[in-house]
Amino acid sequence: MRMSQGVEWALHTCLNLSWLDAPVPTGALAAFYELPPAYLNKQLQALVRAGILTSISGPRGGFRLARPPEAISLLDIVSAIEGPEELFRCDQILSKGPGEHAGVDYRQSCAFAHAMRGADLAWRRELSGKTVADVRSDVERGHPGAPADTRARIAELR
Amino acid sequence: MRMSQGVEWALHTCLNLSWLDAPVPTGALAAFYELPPAYLNKQLQALVRAGILTSISGPRGGFRLARPPEAISLLDIVSAIEGPEELFRCDQILSKGPGEHAGVDYRQSCAFAHAMRGADLAWRRELSGKTVADVRSDVERGHPGAPADTRARIAELR
DNA sequence: GTCGTGCTACTCGGATAGCCCATGTCCGAGTGAGGGTGG
DNA sequence: CCACCCTCACTCGGACATGGGCTATCCGAGTAGCACGAC
């Protein structure tokens, strides 16, 4: 149950985009961390479908944040890459066991499914409580030169 | 990032075993929910390695809880099947970016890794706060006949 | 000088291979129980 | 009748196939900028 690699790429890329106004092409974003450009592009497409990024085609095109970073939670990014399903999927094996099981939805009544959903919600609550803007503030506090460094590096990679 | 199917099997199997004293062979536990016996056996081996179950070979052998159900948390079972790694694995792509990166452990300093770890801990805290005994109490409250039904079904599947 | 037009190069987007882990299965080693035999 | 031993069947445990999804890549559709030429 390892999370997809694309999540880490998406998180850092969104943070970098929050320091930039003009659209940035996939190539520059990938070179920033020495990532495979085509595969990063695939992840960014998912972010576009989720409404987190907007894409512009043609020369001087690229990707840009679709919303201010205060409106992008870590959960938004994780869900965009990993999908909306919860961590634990209840296959209702109870319906194969003894006892009444006519038309019972064990995703609701199974005590284990209930407990697992509670843990899942706690995880999501933490993730939705932290935004890209929050992380950006933390980073700028520890590394005040980060925004300028990022802008300079992107400019030279364009 | 879907959780392994074996987790659901392990949870329900541990609950069933909490109602039984004598060892129960894989075949009976699998038939209970119409699961593939050999593959369920594989999951149970993981629970033995984690110290949650004990196994007895030979005739009249099988699996039994190694500890009282009050001492078995849902986290114990999930970790036994899925492994101890956290959900988000930080590959430290920051080390490829600009800025100083000599001997820095970005799993500690990266703000995203920090936030993801916080969410992971919230998830684990929920799971470790619920034990098999808690779930058993919930089930017995809703279905008082469950223990007897389970014992009867296992007896006829032996 | 200005406007229109065509070209060019750049970027995204989806379609296409490769690889690793979860899934599923099988057979061998070990062992405890039961029956048979001898005292 | 009792104790010992042998055989047997049963169970776990790890080794062996298979498939789906994550990883990685490539090429085509669309588009904005630019240069050139006509007015």
From TrEMBL, chains A, B:
Species whose genome carries this gene: Actinoplanes sandaracinus
UniProt cross-references to NCBIfam families, sorted A to Z: rrf2_super
Pfam families reported in the protein's UniProt record: Rrf2
Source species, domain of life: Bacteria
Protein name (database record): Rrf2 family transcriptional regulator
